[in-house]
Design goal:
The chain has one domain (9-82). It starts with 8 loop residues before the first helix and ends in a 6-residue tail after the last strand. It has helices at residues 9-18, 44-58, and strands at residues 63-66, 79-82. Strands 1-2 form a two-stranded antiparallel sheet. The chain is globular and about 45 Å long. The chain has 88 residues and is of the alpha+beta class. Residues 1-24 are annotated as: Disordered.
């Protein structure tokens, strides 16, 4: 997981979450009917970006932030997002 740099702060973290993957992409599966995404083959910052983009396909994300710092026990939470309120 990526840490927020003091110079860039939250804006820098927000930009990193929405940026394109930086690590190598996993090889496409030989069996085209794979039942599981090869998330374990992604570098962790790229996996966090993928999860945020998947969430954004369900509902627009108003705000997203990384949770904690690398190496810290996070109880399985790496990032969190705030969704717009639906008052209708």
């Amino acid at each position: 997981m990526m840490a927020t740099h003091e110079a860039g702060g939250a804006d820098h973290t927000q930009a990193l979450l929405w940026s394109a993957p930086e690590g190598p992409l996993p090889a496409p599966p030989i069996d085209t009917r794979a039942q599981v995404l090869p998330v374990g083959d992604l570098e962790w910052p790229d996996a966090e970006r993928l999860f945020l983009r998947l969430l954004h396909t369900v509902r627009p994300v108003q705000y997203a932030k990384l949770f904690g710092v690398p190496g810290q026990a996070q109880g399985g939470i790496d990032a969190y997002a705030r969704l717009p309120l639906d008052l209708a």
